[in-house]
Structures are given as C-alpha cells and as structure tokens.
Amino acid sequence: MHISSTTPPRTVLALQGGGAHGAFTWGALDRLLEDGLTFDAVTGVSSGAMIAAMAVQGYVHNGPQGARDSVSKLWRRIAEAHVFGPVNASMDWLWGWDKGLEMGNELAWSGITSALRMFNPGQLNPFGQNPLAPLLKELLDKDAIRHPSAPRLYVAATDVESGEAKVFTNAEIGVRHLLASACIPMMFPAVNIGGRHYWDGGYSCNPALAPVLTPRPERLVLIRAQPRVRKGVPSSTADIVHRLHEIAFQAPLDAEIALLPKQVRLLDISADAALARHPLTSKMNTERNFLDNLFAAGREAAGIVVPT
Q: Can you give the pLDDT at residue 231?
C-alpha cells in the first residue's frame, strides 16, 4: 500500500472482538502499519478494544512503528503469561481437559455447555478474577491515549440492564473499561463502572462504527476477528451453539455497515479463511504457536485486501 506523505486519505479503523482470535487482527494491523498506514480514529470491542488502545498509545510515541511495537508487546505478553491457563485449569474437571481432551473436542464442548447451565459465574470463577487485569495495568499508558495528539479511541461495552452499547472515549478509558468490553458473562462478573454494569461489547456492537464516522472519513478499514461464512449446516449441539454465537455477534456490525455512507470506502479484511475451521473454544487458546499462526494469517489477509 502506498500512502502519499502530503495528502493521506483520512482513515479510521474498526477492530472486531474475538478473544484469542484477535491475534488475526494483530497480524492484519501489523501489516497495514508496516506499509505506512496512518489513522485518525479507531473503534474496537473485546480483544479489538485492547489492540486499539495499544495502537493509539504506541502511535503517540512513535507513529505507525510505535503502534506496531505496542500491539506486539501486548500479544507477546499474553502468550508468555498464557493468560487463560489458570481459568481453564480451575475448570478442567468440568470440561474434561484433565482427561486429555482438546478444546475443540465435541465431548469437551458438551462439558462446557453443561457446566454453564449448572453453575453460575461465581461458582466457576469464585474470586471473579480476570487474568488480563494485571497485564493491562502494566501495559496501558493512560497519559498517551489522553495526549492531544492521540488518534480518537472508542471502546464499547454492553450495558447489562439496557442492552445498549456504551462507548467510552480517550479521556475516560482505563483498565476497567477494557475489561468491561471483554467481559464474558459466563466466566466473569459484570464490570461496574459508575454504577452501571457491563458485559462484552460484542453483544451490542462489534464494533461500534458511528463514532468514527463523524466527521466522515474517506476510508474505513474493518478487521474482522470471527468468520462470517461457515460452510455446511451444523447438526451437533456444540456446532449449533458455535454458529449461533457467530451469527449473533455479526448482526450489529452488519446493520451498521448497511447504513455506511456511500462516500466512505470500506476495506473489509475477512477472517473467514483463517478462522472458520477453528471452534468457539479456541478463542481461549493463548498458546504461542496458535497466536503466531493467526498473526501470520492476518498479515496475509491484509496483504490481499490492500496489496503493497
């Protein structure tokens, strides 16, 4: 991609959420930034919100290269810490992983769905711990994302009571806002911010596009972190639930895209080829090889959509 140094198009980014599948987003964004992409605003939910925050603070420090470095540091730390390992280990007896079952195994997924029906989040995670919290406290640079030169940052979470999306901006975003945007209600307690309680932003928007469309940009780069199309009709309970989640999490975004002004050029980086073969539970897989493979797939996908 060749970007003019004198009159670059006004570009905004939209980053979907998808747990560990966000490593695909990491790779795609890394490729775009390597090619010199500049951006004026970014909106994200869940893992996409964390990537967005890291990209903004890195951009303030050192432009596109700083954004690349900051996002890469986040994912390297996630892999090193194997952040969901303690949560998974505490539920091995419920999910069957202590018997050598893989996360994508049908029997293991059946165990998960049964456990979620039988136990509430307080029982599955009695201390309400989110393993991402200490990592974000260490990495998030609030001064940078609040700096006057920072691209506009929008992080969305879902208000539990109203069901509506709540969008937070640079001046207010902190660790709790990022955790709220990525709060899986079956595993973690709702995040209380200002007396309101929030769950994962993907339930109400994935991500919210309206904030980055005013003023109207010339180009919207959307990086998906979950597949839209999955061939075949699911028959097992596990596959049906998996597909229902994907459809539900796509619907809010599709509705906003349908209303996108014709003057805005949409660059849609699809995750179908990279993610359609992975089960829902792989969103919890933070093993280094898995993340690196998704990173490479993201870079490849970005190169196809926006060739150098």
A: 86
